[in-house]
Amino acid sequence: LLAEQHYQTFTQRFQNYPANIEVLSRFRTPGQQKKIVQAINQGLVDIVIATHRLLSKDVKFMNLGLLVIDEEHRFGVAQKEKIKALKAQVDVLSLSATPIPRSLHMGLTGLRDLSVIETPPPQRYPITTYVMEYNEEIVREAVMAEIARGGQTFFVHNRIQDIQRVKAELEKLLPQVRIAVGHGRMPEEELAQTITEFVAGKFDLFLCTAIIESGLDMPNVNTIIVDMADHMGMAQLYQLRGRVGRSDRVAYAYLTYRPDKAVTETAQKRLNAIREFNELGAGMKIALRDLEIRGAGNILGAEQHGYIYAVGFDLYCRLLEQETAKLRGVVPSETINPQLDIDVDYYIPDSYIPDSGTKMRIYRQLLLAGTTEEVDDIRNEIVDRFGRLPPAVENFLQIAGLRIKARDKEIKSLHRKGDKIEIVLNKTLDADIKIPGLKKINPYTVHIQTEKSSSLAALQEMLELI
User: Fold this and answer.
1) Superfamily of domain 2-108
2) Per-residue pLDDT tens over the stretch 356-384
3) CATH for 339-465, among 3.30.70.1520, 3.30.460.40, 3.60.15.10, 3.90.1150.50?
4) How much is the pTM?
5) What is the C-alpha to C-alpha distance for residues 383 and 388, in angstroms, rounded to an integer?
6) In Å, what is the CA distance from 342 to each residue of 388, 412, 413?
């Protein structure tokens, strides 16, 4: 379906240029496909748009220069290697709103160039997203509200075996609504006809499987209801949600789960991430959260997600970054990771943030923050989501800022207990430093005696003088 849509767009945009454009998909008859393949082999086709059919052995390119892989997350590693084998020196551009963890990690570590398009088309609004138990009354209200404003609705039920049962339930719930059904096992002509009629406005609701997830553009559809969303992957949910909101109307996405079925912890994380990242261009954040939940996968093997158990995920990432930097001729600078031991309470209490997963994510963000601006952003996000900061959380944020200041000053460790402070540096101390109570123990270590236990803000000012 997406290949056909791309073909129409390319034909329209290249109509003033002498380009011969063809499409290979199951919507072409075997005879038509054979002719197109012969033309490709002879170099008579300038641009070919195709599904996996392009990977068949009978397709041979005379002089392939550019390969564009749209919806890259839909391809497996073996298929991608097969694509690369089309020509050794071909330029490859992979496109995806939600790259799989393996591809995203390869971009983040420098094995691939990464470019992010964050600017949405003009007059687009964020999609209002609800994660909720399946409720027939809300489904009825959502569909009728969309029809009332002249729009259409997607209802996604990703199980072909009982899709007709769901249709019967919807017909009983919505007797006046015209419902069409579409799934991947329908004959090509029937599926194409159904979608054409839906686009033409002959149906109000399209009951379908996830067949619609790959980039279909239907601006009049601005409500989507996903049944059993907890059974779907994060990228799949993001892609499905992206089928609506493609015009200047506010769109709505209802991600539902059945109340009689238990939702797993991983599924709950996925649904929470989709609800949390609902702004325009959030695909990169979704993909990063997916990388966090599922792991990076194996760069040299076929796994596209999963942790590197042997050495641990973070160590694996650091080793990989160091090796790729060496290959690029970059000499990695030794980064100092200051050890801070300060006698104050700094943690996130359960009474403030009960969810352990959310707390671990905030701890990780603060430990990895590289600038005070990042710490300020995390502070603003915490206050916005959870309210006024308790003293222990305020201390944690200040210590995160102290760690960054200590790193910039090349301080290896800082210990404070009561009115005594010990600082160990990675460099020799300047002779003209004027700090009251300072005593040099050796060229790298100083002790500071204060009149009383200094505040974290006073420690920050003290580090400024070093």
Assistant:
1) P-loop containing nucleotide triphosphate hydrolases (3.40.50.300)
2) 778 878 887 888 788 889 999 999 999 99
3) 3.90.1150.50
4) 0.55
5) 6
6) 23, 14, 11
